[in-house]
Amino acid sequence: MTRTKTLATSLLGLTAAALLALGAGSGATAAPSISDGTDASTVSSNSASDANTADYWTPERMKNAVSGDLLVTKALTRTQAAVGLSDIPTSPDQVFPGLGRALTIEGQNATSTAAPSPAVDRKANAGESPVSHIGKVFFTLGGVNYVCSGNSVTSANQSTVSTAGHCLNEGPGAFAGNFTFVPAYQDGAAPYGKWTAKALYTTSQWSSSGNIQYDTGFAVMNTLNGQKLAAVVGASGVQFNAARGLAYKSFGYPAASPFTGESLKSCSGTATNDPNNPQFNTQGIPCNMTGGSSGGPWFLGSSASGYQNSVNSYGYGSNSTTMYGPYWGTVIQGTYQTASTAP
């Protein structure tokens, strides 16, 4: 059963934005940095079932899961329709007026008539060895199996995973089923097992209107073999209401071409505001990771041992060289606190 506390009342002003979601060291165990009061009334949650979920994710289903970037495109389209906008593209090759950026749905590249993408600038990403607390997120929405990325974060329940809001809720719409976290995934291997969700949490701004500004979610995981997630893989500290323009290192499992989703990648750089849609309040860093990396963690500093301060959310166009993530302020902090203290 879904329970929602006080839905947000304002819709994000989506002005002709062509979005491509980029959705999928030892664990830091520092306590979360809490800067001021929170607004837990903006939390939307859903109970999940453990019944046969881990068994559902066979190696074949994990390999064939669709990258979660398609879900942000769908959320954007639904929100535009709700506010009466008519300039909604119906194919991957159409362009929103005024932006000159093609809306690319990575899962449809095989049937697209667009010109082939140029070679990826390998300087915009780096290969990484598996990190115990970072992994792939698998889930089902509307009968389709999807893949994103996620990270184990420090919490009172020792069982909380961060990801993008669109990786656990349609925004607006239903919550995901079969939600499973596979830490340190590498070439189909699940060295720490498959962790199933007990409950899913996101901001009601995302669940009620698909507001990109709040595209973050948290999953509370069941125990596995009698152990809690953080005790097995570690957990990252988190920080909220940080200064803007800081240096970050982000991680994820990009699955859309030219990547395969079978290994961990990273991007590093100094954050800058989104110049195309400043109302999103997001920040971007140099990065060319594609669909599947959605929900992967952003760490302050230059390694996976820093405090987490955002997640991979979206980029512009098929050859995007910038990854954008939501600003983790008071609203997202409230959602984290609700999830992290849930039984």
UniProtKB/TrEMBL annotation:
Signal peptide coordinates: 1-30
Keyword Manganese attributed: no
Region named Disordered: 31-55
Keywords from the UniProt entry: Signal
Ranges annotated as biased composition (Low complexity): 38-55
Database matches in InterPro entries: Glutamyl_endopeptidase, Peptidase_S1_PA, Peptidase_S1_PA_chymotrypsin
Keyword Coiled coil: no
Identification of the protein by name: Peptidase
